[in-house]
Please model this.
Amino acid sequence: MLAYVVRRLLWLPVLLLAISFVTFALGRFGPGDPVQVLQGQHLNPEIQERVRHELGLDKPFLEQYQQYVTSALQGDFGLSYKYRGEAVSDLILRRLAVSAQLSMAAIIVSLTLGILIGIASALRAGTAFDLFVAGASSAAYAIPSFVSAPMLMWLFAGQLKVLPVSGWDGILSTRAILPVTVISLSSIAYIARQTRASVLDVLDQDYVRTARAKGLLEKSVIFQHVLPNSLIPIATIGGLMLGSLVGGFFITESVFGIPGIGRLGVEALFSRDYPVIMAMTLLIATAYVLANLVVDLTYAFLDPRIRYK
Model:
């Protein structure tokens, strides 16, 4: 197991180097000039060249990339173009705590409700409750966040006037209820459907019938035999959700005015703030690689038959 983990971690620098090169090249050769965005409509060729020189954008591409990699290895991701003079690492760290709180709350809500609804639906397969869950899950999964967010804002803030719609006061504030709900809706629906299918598959296994034939309580059969063996597909979903801890939610954070990583990413994209985009890309890539590793290790924990060499 240890050798497997070490091999996976050794691939991480290679993967990050490839991702950084592609992202850096897209930033330099793709559409949009950060200097022109900074100057806006008042373009001055002389000032433009001076700013380009100050930012190091007038150097050859490979030289720029080499300098970036060298600085990044020392923990220096450069200065933001949009927030002049502010270190990218400081910008990201400030926003990371907000997105991590939002993501963790969404993960807990999604997994808890999704698994419970999925189990209940599987145990009542073919009933009216199961049909209702199937229809509601399909609808919730099909509605994108940029549609569900305005709908919930209109209902709970505009009509019922019971919840605020913007700002951030921490995860325990009422301002977090709508964003967490918007983020969790599609995840709850997907997890519920996957849990239902997995539980139904396990219920048909011989060892479940044997456990029931021995006279075990139905609750014991479900929680000791069925559920642990049904969670492997859910572990994959949970691992992907873990990656969002540092990735933020671009649409939700922007709509609700939450100062998280997702909103910072939107601002960086529109302002061509390439140092921020680069740092966020590397951070998110690292998070998803580590999350996938955690998922693989979770497989071995849930199913002792799975072994890695």
Remarks:
- The chain has a mean pLDDT of 84.
